[in-house]
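User: Can you recover a sequence for this backbone? Please restate the input before giving your answer.

Assistant: Of course. Working from this structure:
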């Protein structure tokens, strides 16, 4: 009889990603969302009035850096080899 953690042939299931990979993916997703939230805003109340708030340090420099860091964390999460506890 097969256990819940094995397939029909009785061999254990091997997942593509480990627990650490999913934590890193979630952290990268959070960084990307925070970066896009930092980019938001900066409009003026009156569309006929020019607002220099769109060129702030937060929107031009900080937010893109945070988004790129989020994508780097995602790449690391995908490329990182999961630790397996399966013994032959």
């Amino acid at each position: 009889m097969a256990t819940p953690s094995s397939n029909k042939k009785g061999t254990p299931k091997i997942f593509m990603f480990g627990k650490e990979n999913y934590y890193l993916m979630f952290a990268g997703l959070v960084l990307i969302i925070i970066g896009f939230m930092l980019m938001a805003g900066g409009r003026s109340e009156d569309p006929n009035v020019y607002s220099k708030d769109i060129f702030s340090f937060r929107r031009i420099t900080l937010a893109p850096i945070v988004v790129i860091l989020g994508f780097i964390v995602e790449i690391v999460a995908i490329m990182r080899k999961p630790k397996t506890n399966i013994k032959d």
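That completes the design. Residues 20 and 82 are 7 Å apart (CA to CA).
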